[in-house]
Amino acid sequence: MDFLRPASWEEALAAKAEHPTAVPIAGGTDVMVEINFDHRRPEYLLDLNRIGDLSEWEVGEASVRLGASVPYTKIMENLRAELPGLALASHTVASPQIRNRGGVGGNLGTASPAGDAHPALLAAGAEVEVESVRGTRRIPIDAFYTGVKRNALAADELIRAVHVKKADGPQQFSKVGTRNAMVIAVCAFGLALHPETRTVRTGIGSAAPTPVRAKTAEEFLNAALEEGGFWDNGQIITPSVAKQFADLCSAACNPIDDVRGTASYRRHAVGVMARRTLTWTWESYRGDRRTIEGAA
Amino acid sequence: MRVNFKVNGRQQEADDVWEGESLLYVLRERLGLPGSKNACEQGECGSCTVRLDGVPVCSCLVAAGQVEGRDIVTVEGLADFARQRSESGCASGACGTSLQDAQDWQAKGTDSQTGEGTELSAIQQAFIDAGAVQCGFCTPGLLVAADEMLERNPNPSDADIREALSGNLCRCTGYEKIMDAVRLAAARQSEAV
């Protein structure tokens, strides 16, 4: 095994081009487990810790450019207002020690259906900035996950950053597990209200071969909210609408039975989380509306 | 490969390090510092918690090559680290814990009273006084994690303590005494100020 230690991003891209099988390592919270357990013996480890730029973030006009290695702890502490869904999801990642090392780039690179960041990224809307010596491209998050632990990266590409849309409304994240810490999601759900476009976006984790959006459920809810004038009148969402939305979210799942839970449990739990996160975000939206109107 | 890094305030060099080796292995097997414990090797248990440039991490998940040029504090250097913090800096100019001292470190004094005659950090003393040590395997990781929390948050609520220690498992399930110990250390800390 060789340990490659590029001092700059350009050096890292050159190294990845020369050794496409090199395994990038940043926080190490996935890669080192595989090495410790002898599940993986990569020929090259490509250490990204010396590239400081990867641990930085910039808050722009419409989105946040989040460096691939920004640890979850920093997201929780610094980006709660801009990226509330991702900040909530970050807080459910493993333990403080892991959150101090792991970042969204690793979640995307591993592309496990159970990665905690995925539902939040899907719901908020995001693009993954990847680069190789051939150039830079941005992959929409919906096109990023291609299979179980597979993503749209080419062999010579590295993840540099993820551009996440700044929240224009309330966002929520919910995760099912046996305790509050150190849990791989049995299933997870992210929901974001986008009042500016009058749309709702979702993200489902751990209940299909890849993280997915519940698109039919989104379309149904968007239409129902529009039809009822809910965005304007700020009324409580009709229980039948919430139920139908939850059922459609369950239907968007394609889960398996495994040690953490059965397929039918996952389907059921996703429906429950969909209903709850919709209620939480909608109540928060109504509250914000009242505050704004009251002030005006 | 060779790895140069600071351990407990002193420059160290580890030789013949395998590229896939963890920081934990380097500390235990190459530098002879078995204080950080090796249990799950997958970041679940927190027994191997150390400070990496001040930040608590699982040393089993840090690749040895990643610590080149960086700064590690292990439980063996915790007493000295805490003392320096309280003196806000290194007044004597001869701080840090030598490898020899770190290797020989034990919470055993000159007589039968555990801890007596040995320099302890406030959190170590509190663990002893509160009886928060049973088999002792999880203790080093808990000490490092708890000490860091008290540094950041001198008056933690119970929820803060649980959150900060949520990545450290104790299979003797002596959590209540551990909570007592951290509360005790926090109380003593606020009294001292």
Structure description:
- The complex is a heterodimer of chains A (296) and B (193).
- Chain A has twelve helices and 13 strands.
- Chain A has 296 residues and is α+β, with helices and mostly antiparallel strands.
- Chain A has two domains: 2-165, Uridine Diphospho-n-acetylenolpyruvylglucosamine Reductase, domain 3, CATH 3.30.465; 177-295, Enolase-like, domain 1, CATH 3.30.390.
- A five-stranded antiparallel β-sheet of chain A has the order 4-5-10-6-7.
- The longest helix of chain A has 33 residues, at 263-295.
- Chain A is globular.
- Chain B is α+β, with helices and mostly antiparallel strands.
- Chain B has a domain at 107-192: [2Fe-2S]-binding domain (DNA polymerase, domain 1).
- In chain B, β3 and β4 (55-58) form a beta hairpin.
- The radius of gyration of chain B is 16 Å and the shape is globular.
- Classes of the chains: A alpha+beta (296), B alpha+beta (193).
- Chain A binds chain B through residues 1-3, 5, 25, 27-29, 31-33, 35-37, 41, 45, 47, 49, 94-98, 100-101, 180-182, and chain B through 1, 18-20, 22, 41-44, 46, 49, 55-58, 60-63, 65-66, 68, 145, 163-164, 166-169.
- Chain B: GO terms for molecular function: 2 iron, 2 sulfur cluster binding; metal ion binding; oxidoreductase activity.
- Chain B: Keywords: 2Fe-2S, Iron, Iron-sulfur, Metal-binding, Oxidoreductase.
- Chain B: Residues 1-78 form the 2Fe-2S ferredoxin-type domain.
- Chain B: It comes from Streptomyces cahuitamycinicus.
